[in-house]
Amino acid sequence: MRLDKLLAHTGYGTRTEVKKLLKSKEVKVDGVVVKDAKVKVDLSKQCVTVFDEVVEYREFVYLMMNKPQDCLSATRDQRYRTVIDLLDDYYLMFDVAPAGRLDRDTEGLVLLTNDGKLAHEIISPKKDVYKRYVAHVTGELTDEKLNQLETGVEILDGTGEVFSTKPAKVKILQKNDEWTEVEICITEGKFHQVKRMFASVGGKVIYLKRLAIGGLELDESLELGEYRELTDEELALLTFAHQE
């Protein structure tokens, strides 16, 4: 990797700022001052230091966010804030993106990463990675309707095409006079899928939150809009393509 790119990606500033840093003679490769931004380095074989501190480069970053409402699971948008807008500048240099879609008015777990392979494993319906949600639903939810959801229903997929959902896991958690709290697990992520699924059996989702992706559970200590890096143990949970 070019030295200027390495320094930019590890938080030492923009390319312009990195060039000024190189001119200061504070950047060394294997103990030798280097001022040429085009020099290529291999951190597996060489030691790069800035102000005598070793530069450590990370190829991949994995972040867990508790997404608030009125926020898009996207990298940029002209009208609404996105999950990327909530990140500190340090993480912006890694070009992370949300792994999968979470509707603007839906809260909860979003994984942000620059590991495209892992993101594909999570998103692809063929991998059968369950995403678990809690929903507040108005309308009567009979056993027959729950069975329909678990078997699969037909909905519009956001492009106007009819889409048959894969079997879901559905469980009623509690009821009150206004709505029913339901836990639902699906392996797909079509546009407004959970809302459309309940609508297909006469229900209306008035609140939706994602709690888990596969074995990765949302850290409930995270306030809405907060995020943190995954632990090694949490990352290991996402390496399994199939979840029971």
Task: Tell me what you see in this structure.
The chain has 244 residues and is an alpha+beta fold. The protein has 3 domains: 3-54, RNA-binding S4 domain (Structural Genomics Hypothetical 15.5 Kd Protein In mrcA-pckA Intergenic Region, Chain A, Roll); 62-125 and 218-238, Pseudouridine synthase I, catalytic domain, N-terminal subdomain (Alpha-Beta Plaits); 131-213, Alpha-Beta Plaits, CATH 3.30.70. The protein has 7 helices and 15 strands. Strand 6 and strand 7 form a beta hairpin.
Tell me the number of structural domains: 3
Helix content range: 10-25%
Largest sheet: 9 strands, mixed
Principal-axes geometry comes out as elongated
CATH fold label of the largest domain:
Alpha-Beta Plaits
CATH architecture of the largest domain: 2-Layer Sandwich
Strand content: 25-35%
> What is the helix tally?
7
N- and C-termini, Cα separation:
41 Å
Structural class: alpha+beta
Report the average pLDDT across residues.
92
Oligomer class: single chain
Q: Secondary-structure blueprint of this entry?
A:
Elements: H1 3-9, H2 15-23, E1 27-29, E2 32-33, E3 48-50, E4 53-54, E5 62-67, H3 89-92, E6 97-98, E7 107-113, H4 116-123, E8 131-138, H5 143-151, E9 154-156, E10 162-164, E11 169-175, E12 180-186, H6 193-199, E13 204-213, E14 216-217, E15 227-229, H7 232-237
Parallel strand pairs: 7-13
Antiparallel strand pairs: 1-2, 1-3, 3-4, 5-7, 5-15, 6-7, 8-12, 8-13, 9-10, 11-12, 13-14
Helix pairs in contact: 1-2
GO biological process, one term: enzyme-directed rRNA pseudouridine synthesis
Enzyme class: isomerase
GO molecular function, one term: rRNA pseudouridine synthase activity
